[in-house]
Amino acid sequence: MTLSFFDQFMSPTYLGIPLMALALSLPWILYPKPTPRWLSNRLLALQGWFINRFTHQMFLPINLGGHKWAALLTSLMLFLITLNMLGLLPYTFTPTTQLSLNMAFAVPLWLATVIIGMRNQPTHALGHLLPEGTPTLLIPVLIIIETISLFIRPLALGVRLTANLTAGHLLIQLIATAAFVLAPIMPTVAILTATVLFLLTLLEIAVAMIQAYVFVLLLSLYLQENV
């Protein structure tokens, strides 16, 4: 029973062929394509309004040099939200519960922000490693600590997203299993458990959206430091 709880996090295969690429490409099919017509339907209008508001809010504190990242980070947030939300459906696979996938998103984007900072303003970028007014004896220790914290950033991005989604999926499966087992024995307790399951599902929907937003928000903060 314990092992079966973790089967949902295994990468799906069909006839020995991994279906991770299919799981990653499916979300793009669900979004309506922009139309050249002046008048569009309500769904396209709502989608455009949401993207515009998010982009405006995200890049408000960033100068014009960082606005080149708007399309990339907005697309990444929509992509992560869609993957997280689709993973809450029954009998589906959530690619963002795989640490390797999240690290594949986090490491290149974090590295790109660091390279931009080193190329455009190396003195300012290196200045983050040593706060102003540091005592002389603490300079080597602080440089080591700040360097370690710098390299931990992409790991924290990937682990945060993976851990939150994995914990939520495990809780949903555990409580659903408990409700199913208690139904013929104690129907009243099973109803209460099902109510808790419904509330937890609503919470996981919020977590799925918030974690995608936090992932992109932290990347934008890293970009703001280096632009």
UniProtKB/TrEMBL annotation:
Transmembrane regions listed in the UniProt entry: 12-31, 69-89, 101-118, 138-159, 171-199, 205-223
Q: Read off the PROSITE patterns from this record.
A: ATPASE_A (PS00449)
The membrane topology term of the UniProt record is: Multi-pass membrane protein
State the compartments where it is located: Mitochondrion inner membrane
| Family matches, as Pfam families | ATP-synt_A
- Got a GO cellular component term for this one? proton-transporting ATP synthase complex
Q: What is its main location?
A: mitochondrion
- Which keywords belong to this entry? ATP synthesis, CF(0), Hydrogen ion transport, Ion transport, Membrane, Mitochondrion, Mitochondrion inner membrane, Transmembrane, Transmembrane helix, Transport
Q: Which InterPro entries has this protein been placed in? A: ATP_synth_F0_asu, ATP_synth_F0_asu_AS, ATP_synth_F0_asu_bact/mt, F0_ATP_A_sf
Quote the catalytic activity from the record: H(+)(in) = H(+)(out)
Q: Which domain of life is it from?
A: Eukaryota
List, in alphabetical order, the Gene Ontology terms for molecular function in this entry: proton-transporting ATP synthase activity, rotational mechanism
Q: Summarize subunit and interaction data from the UniProt record for this chain.
A: Component of the ATP synthase complex composed at least of ATP5F1A/subunit alpha, ATP5F1B/subunit beta, ATP5MC1/subunit c (homooctomer), MT-ATP6/subunit a, MT-ATP8/subunit 8, ATP5ME/subunit e, ATP5MF/subunit f, ATP5MG/subunit g, ATP5MK/subunit k, ATP5MJ/subunit j, ATP5F1C/subunit gamma, ATP5F1D/subunit delta, ATP5F1E/subunit epsilon, ATP5PF/subunit F6, ATP5PB/subunit b, ATP5PD/subunit d, ATP5PO/subunit OSCP.
NCBIfam families to which the protein is assigned, alphabetical: ATP_synt_6_or_A (TIGR01131)
Concerning its family, UniProt says: Belongs to the ATPase A chain family.
Q: What is this protein called?
A: ATP synthase subunit a
Q: Which organism is it from?
A: Embiotoca jacksoni
